[in-house]
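Weekly sync notes, structure subgroup
Attendees: PM, AL, DS (notes)

Item 1: joint prediction request from the bench team. They want all two components modeled as one assembly rather than separately. Inputs as received:
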Amino acid sequence: MADYNLVKGHDIRIAGVPKNSVVEGKAPEFVALKPSEFRGVKPKLMVQEGGHVKIGTPLFHDKTNSQITWPSPGSGEITEIKYGPRRVIEKIVIKLSDEESSESFSSYNPQELNNLSREKILSALLKGSIFPFIRQRPFNKVPDPDIIPRDIFVSGWNSSPLAVNLDLALRRRLPQFQAGVDILNKLTDGKVHLSYNENTVSDTLLNVRGARAHTFNGPHPAGNVGIQIHHISPINLNDLVWTVNAQDVVRIGNFFLTGKLDTTLFVTVGGPSVLNPVHIKSRLGSKIEYLLKDNLSEDENRVISGDVLTGTKSSLEDFIEFYHSTISVVPHETSREFLGMLRPGSSSSRYSLTNAFIGSRQKDYSFNTLKNGSERYILPIDTWENVLPMDIIPNALYRAIYANDIEEMEQLGIIECDEEDFALCSFACPSKIDVGGMIRQGLDLMEEEG
Amino acid sequence: MLGLLKKVLDKYRENFEEGGKLERLYPIYEATDTILFSTNEVTETGPHIRDSIDTKRVMILVVISLLPLYFFGATNIGFQNSIAIGLERSNWENFWFGFSKILPIIIVTFTAGAFWELLFAVVRKHPLSEGFLVTCALIPLTMPAGIPLWQIVVATTFGIVIGKEIFGGVGMNIFNPALMARVFIFFTYPTKISGDKVWVLGPDGYSGATALSIPASELNQDAFTLLNNFGQFDYSWWNMFWGWIPGSIGETNKFLIIIGALFLAYIKIVNWRVMFGAVLGLVGTALLTNLVAPFSSNSMFTIPPHYHLVMGSFLFGTAFMATEPVTGCHTNQGRWIYGILFGSLTVIIRSINPAYPEGVMLSILFVNAFAALIDWFVIQANIKRRQARYAQ
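Output from the run, pasted for the record:
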């Protein structure tokens, strides 16, 4: 047990924070899995359009490692397999049948779990298509199951804007969460690290055994698992660790207790354009339309799968992504302000980490998609450093990546980084530079060159 | 009216965009367009929302923080002139007198600056950088009131072209372009700005010593007594603080400079570490020189730290020149070292080099040159920490 109090970072005061109450979501008609969102995976389909699948039926596997398969998030008929440019499989859409059925695998009672061997657990995870819920660092992708991770990290606290309150999502899930942690403990020779916040009240998180608990306090991105790894036990050159979302720990535990894939997913819908921001008990891969029905303002909006900092541009017609549990909606704005750069600024129109505007301290600011400036040269006035709670020099790292200098990138610690941890740097940058994108580019280069 | 303006801009937009007749002049169009109306560029990937700050806003705020110095500078030019010719004038008349002298300097600086900036933006196909606004706003403030306008043109050209554009434009320059303009005049036309004679608009041949050159030219004297007994100008501490002394247009009023510096630090667009470090370095080194003063014949060693602060252009350089983010250090630890080094070098050059009693300009150039090296050490320390961990 250790306390980490981080100072750097920033909690964006965006309007439309989800209320701390859960509503039962409308049952979607369609769910989908999007193979294109998994980094470095070359998907090979295992099903065809028109075929019928159950919950948990493998839909595709990775060409480079065929034992890793991805589960169907629903039971019904595959109505569409959509291809993008260059025949990339974009999404596999399933029309849910009225009576859903699940693929069934062996189930165990909690005592039996402790006697399972690592091999047995791993093969169950792979067979049941549960394995992709695990990701690795560095590179933030689905790991190679044959490599034993040094440690496994779970963040029990979301600090990102409009994110799911895990106290709600994990309520009354202790048995499943405990089973999940037990399983994860078997998968690593190191420890399972669980971190939460001083305000965490969830019984599930506080009472689980077998995980090393840490308390992280401070503004976003203190809740990001990458930041937590950096402070608890940083990734060294040849290290490999796994990370699992807290909701997916429940899913893994449940899979071993029942033999079935639990498709429950607690989702938040929030942002300035959402009329009634709230937590929704929904399911994996749900069509976004069903989550936002009658809950949007009339204006032109941008729908984002994920949080406003790291999410992907989406639409009502699209589906929530595999690792996401937030749907954010912000107004899409294209208006231009006369002599905007000279205006002193008012509380309703400007939000800044600097004090360059009068009255920009207001709560619940209604953000829109405007960049508020054009891309310019880097102006090193500390804006990046102030929101990055890591012992990393972002400016130097950025330049190393820009110069494609792999050796220096490595020396400056790129393997500890992920783009999501740098999203706030891009948010705050006065030169509107995509710092996170650059980190991603550097990671891609590192991966390519081995 | 606004709608019309917007329509006109939109109407001609296609001429400047790719494939248009005036494609090459796009940076000029873009600059005009985005100065008049804030850009409507939207985010494409995450982060989907952005902070409201942009470089335009940053630059314009620096310019705003300089405005009071212009007002005071104009008034002071008139005031010094009235003393020189022995005429009673009100502050208002002093202001208008000074204003009529500095307006041409401002116009010439901005015209020359904008010309080179636009030319390079068009030829090198980079967006017009708003940084030139700050550069051009700083240059007149570092100049004496009677400077010939053609020298301003040459200096501004040197500052922008050699100081900035040949390195690839703003963001890649090593030395502060505004300071380069000042240095150019300093070394090329030493009869105009030598640093030891005052700059006052007065009758021909009217001159006098600057505060710094008084102790510099005497041996075995106490600077404090020398300054307070100087007859021609009032070089008491408070008078130097309030700025009613001869000097460059913008450097004399320390009160307004401090207000400007606090403003910039408060709105978080310049780094307080540099400013704080500089004052620390200056005071520390000045105390050291005071300690060795009894063993030396150099009267400069006897200047107390609080006098160093208000003499010459130290505070002006600290607030507006040394804090320039691109040419300074880019790491926070580095900024401390950079600031302290700047402050102590200022005292060292002032005290030990009798040819240049004003050390601020040279010490900023010096630390500019060392900024990358200081950063290198900070970065190496970071790398070493990580490697020590890897080795475990």
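Discussion: Chain A touches chain B through 76 residues (CB under 8 Å).
Action: AL to compare against the crosslinking data before next sync.
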